[in-house]
Each structure stands twice: as structure tokens, then as C-alpha cells.
């Protein structure tokens, strides 16, 4: 059944749209620090077998901070983060966003440098590229005055 024409039922709603995920920069910063604490409190584990009896050992490994992980922790999407950052929030929000991204970058970079994380994966994730530009000029000149003998028709006695 369709709604009657010229209805104004929409005015009965208590609110329009979704609430902001973070009302203030302090709430965003607090959520990020909670995520960082959670990462440190819940490490990943690698199973290894040690000793002559091959006893099973669980080795704790640090969990890298990621923007994806932060968004999942805050029940948001990465698209939300990109849109929120690009929408030109206040200077206070931009400062907090920048600091969060710097913390994530630094933790990954330093973890890769000391061997806690796979350096190849982290360098690709952080956009670090080891490029060498080689500029060279190639000049080709024809060789004249040489006689080329074919080995197919050559006389073996000569």
C-alpha cells in the first residue's frame, strides 16, 4: 500500500540521518588509543616446536597497527575514514587524524626495521619504493668499409 499523497509522516521522525561517529576530536583520539592498547594487549601467536621432545610453544608476536584495523575496531569502514578526512573537518580533527596516521606509519616502519614485521609487506603497504632512475643515451652509427664473409659459403681450405 502506498503512502497517501502530500503526507508529512517524515516530520514525525525524532532525528534525520545517522549520528556522527565521533562528535569531537577527543573522542576520535580516545577511540584510536583504545585500539592501540587493544593491539598491544592481544598479540598474535606463532606456534613453534622446541627442544628434543618438540614441545609446542606459542610465541607472542606484536600486532601491527593498521588503518583497516582501527576502522573495524570503531565499527566504521575505510571509505568512511577517507570521506571524513577529505570532507574538510575542523583543524582539530585534522590534527588528530594526522597524528593517528603518523602513529600507525611509525609503528609499522619501526617494526619492519627491527624485524618484527615482514619488511617487504610493510614497505609495500607504506608505499616505500626503492627506485633507481637510469638515464642513458644510445647512439647508433652504421659501420662502413667492412666486408662480411658468410661461413656458409666459405671454403674450408682457405
UniProtKB/TrEMBL annotation:
Taxonomic superkingdom: Bacteria
InterPro entries: GP3_package
Gene3D superfamilies: 1.10.132.80
One Pfam family in the UniProt entry: GP3_package
Protein name (database record): DNA-packaging protein
Amino acid at each position: 500500500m502506498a503512502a497517501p499523497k502530500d503526507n508529512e509522516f517524515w516530520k514525525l521522525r525524532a532525528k534525520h540521518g545517522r549520528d556522527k561517529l565521533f562528535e569531537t576530536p577527543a573522542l576520535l583520539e580516545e577511540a584510536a588509543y583504545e585500539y592501540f592498547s587493544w593491539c598491544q594487549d592481544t598479540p598474535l601467536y606463532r606456534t613453534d616446536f622446541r627442544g628434543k621432545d618438540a614441545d609446542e610453544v606459542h610465541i607472542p608476536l606484536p600486532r601491527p597497527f593498521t588503518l583497516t584495523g582501527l576502522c573495524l575496531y570503531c565499527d566504521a569502514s575505510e571509505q568512511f575514514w577517507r570521506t571524513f578526512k577529505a570532507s574538510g573537518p575542523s583543524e582539530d580533527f585534522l590534527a588528530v587524524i594526522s597524528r593517528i596516521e603518523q602513529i600507525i606509519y611509525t609503528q609499522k616502519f619501526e617494526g619492519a626495521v627491527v624485524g618484527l614485521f615482514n619488511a617487504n609487506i610493510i614497505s609495500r603497504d607504506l608505499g616505500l619504493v626503492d627506485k633507481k632512475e637510469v638515464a642513458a643515451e644510445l647512439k647508433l652509427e652504421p659501420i662502413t668499409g667492412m666486408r662480411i664473409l658468410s661461413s656458409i659459403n666459405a671454403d674450408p681450405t682457405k
